[in-house]
Amino acid sequence: EVRYPSLRKKPFIHFRIMSKPNKHESKRGSKRESKRCVEAQCLPILQHKATLTKLVKDNVFLVVTGETGSGKTTQLPQYLYEAGLWKGGIIGITQPRRVAAITVAQRVSQEMHFTLGKEVGYQVRFDDCTSQATVVKYMTDGCLLREILADPGLSQYSVVILDEAHERSLNTDILLGLLKKTLLQADKGSKDGSVRLRVVVMSATLETDKLSTFLGHCPVFTIPGRTFPVTSRFGNAIGPKEVDIALEVHVSEVAGDILVFLTGQSEIEKACDMLYEKAESIDYRYDVQDQTVEGLLILPLYGSMPTDQQRQIFQAPPSGIRKCVVATNIAATSLTINGIKYIVDSGFVKQLNHNSRVGMDILEVVPISKSEAQQRAGRAGRTSAGKCFRIYSNEFWEKCMLDYTVPEIQRASLTSVVLTLKCLGVHDVIRFPYLDHPEERLLLEALKQLYQFDAIDRRGQVTQLGRLIMEFPLHPGLTRALLKAAAYGCEDILLPLAAMLSVENIFIRPGHPEKQKEADKKQRNMAAQSGGMNDFATLLSVFQCDSPSAWCKENWIHWRALKSAFSIETQLREILLRLQQKKDFPVETFAGNKSELFRRCLCTGYFTNVARRSIGKIFSTMDGHGTAVHVHPSSSLFDQEAELDWVIFHDMMVTSRVYLRTVCPIRYDWVKDLLPKLHEVDAYELSNIAREEVNEEELAKLESKEAKRQKGILKLEKRNDETSV
Ligand code: CDP
Ligand code: MG
């Protein structure tokens, strides 16, 4: 058959990240709105509206499950609103991911014809878009956990929906335990049988029996879903990679959108660039099998993307254009994109894991589990039969992929969570009702770290400092440094720093090698201008720069990240001001220069992250692990190692080597009184005390053990004094 290219008049379109509304936008406007209403009408959940509403009303606990995309997250809260449940208090819905909370709230406010932030709002860390009028509130699970701290009975709420429970995020797991603990007890107590607070747990997969049993054998409602078959194809180790497969799908498969799963922002941006470049050479007259396909729309999707860009992901592409979304795991369950027919699965995910080698939480790229892979593939079969192209081989599937994803509670640091529990009066954190019990070693490590920060005492009780630390949505160490600075009256240097450390990727790392060089140079200059040899100070000076927007562009700084740091700083300042008004807020005086003061304050929070140079460029951590580490090439201290002796660092990166990132030199003097704390107490002792009531004899034993350790430390000190700067 001969095709006549000249008959095809339409141009060949490629788009790439459209942060500005494109010319197709206006055409869709009103049509889109009406289409959306129709969509909501035919979501599988709709038929069960009455049943679901009644079940929620009649039960303290309810588990709801159904395929992703069946309408649980967006519809159920609306049903409960219509049923008038909001009159008894807010209808709150938690999400493990902030992006999901924001985009879903936007969507639901549109569906309900409310202004976002009024009746329907959202709250995520450092971004509160709610008001007095808010009755349907989407939020991250972390936010609800903080609310429980201030109000353990959640008296403002009538219903709490814990969404995405199958993700098994640390905070959702803890919320499950807490609500079980308080509500099952309260239930027994109330005689009239009236229910004030109801809890709905929503989950995509079938772990529902376990959930129901955990929640006192509560009812389970399953939304029957229709799904279409998805055929999966494995790749092999040397086969084409994600971008090439996506391109192959584009030219050889019939119309339908593509969803590519990668691990993170920079990888996604790179892939989008490559895809765009390669797609440029497609000749749509000859190369594309399905002649109704006339162009490719490439859209990245990851957590830290601006929300107006994220919204475009959900819009239908212009007719004839195939959409290709390149996303992180966020698109696996939290966000459903309509029209996806093809999946390209890299088989990897970025995950925060506690690394026992270095004793810290590290962001790692790890293989996904088999159930996760099936979930990803399933995204192609929502509206018609789909195809899933796996980059990895069958062998990889068999040998490297676990059956199920390990819950976060069994792999992440529990420091903040344990402090939260303790503040809530859960003294025995080991026998708390966990859905899956965390490894004891993680609990012990958390107790130990809290003790090191003076957040709990030997008896496992929260200290005054611990309560102050709890007020800030930051890592306890960073908060402690901030509080120290505030005590000296110099919070103005630590507040911006804390804000800068709370946003991601301040420094842009361009993919192009030439540009990378340029960016490196600019960033090195910046470090030098801020006094050099201190990555924390560099961050501070970026925050303080004068002509932000233009300056950022020129210096390869993320303007948006910097802007959010400004807002975070204001919020942290407000918290601090409130605390400073209290009578017992600690105050101290300090004599010395500013740079020293800055670094000394940092030491009080980062003494758990101290390393000392051993030989050449190799450092050794002082936390008892004695890990051999290197300064990361992105640090201003890189290649200056010979001048260093002791350093503190913000985090680590583990590849074949362990790298320290965001580093600054300190003097041994500044940490010598703090370091003993690292070895002072055995975590087991803390937990025993947490478990049983304090026994004076045991305490005496501890004391004598500590005396011994002190002796050991004195010896170490002596040696160090001789070599210290
Ligand atoms: O929670 P569940 O996975 O059951 O479904 P959902 O998130 O409520 O999604 C229901 C429908 O709303 C899907 O067709 C989504 O594509 C759509 N949706 C959307 O278009 N925009 C959003 N921001 C969120 C959902
Ligand atoms: Mg959902």
Automatic annotation (TrEMBL):
Transmembrane segments: none annotated. Residues 246-425 form the Helicase C-terminal domain. InterPro entries: DEAD-box_helicase_OB_fold, DEAD/DEAH_box_helicase_dom, DNA/RNA_helicase_DEAH_CS, HA2_WH, Helicase-assoc_dom, Helicase_ATP-bd, Helicase_C-like, P-loop_NTPase. SUPFAM superfamilies: P-loop containing nucleoside triphosphate hydrolases. It catalyses: ATP + H2O = ADP + phosphate + H(+). One of its GO terms (biological process) is mRNA processing. Its EC number is 3.6.4.13. Gene3D superfamilies: 1.20.120.1080, P-loop containing nucleotide triphosphate hydrolases. This is RNA helicase. It comes from Gadus morhua (Atlantic cod). The lineage of its organism: Eukaryota, Metazoa, Chordata, Craniata, Vertebrata.
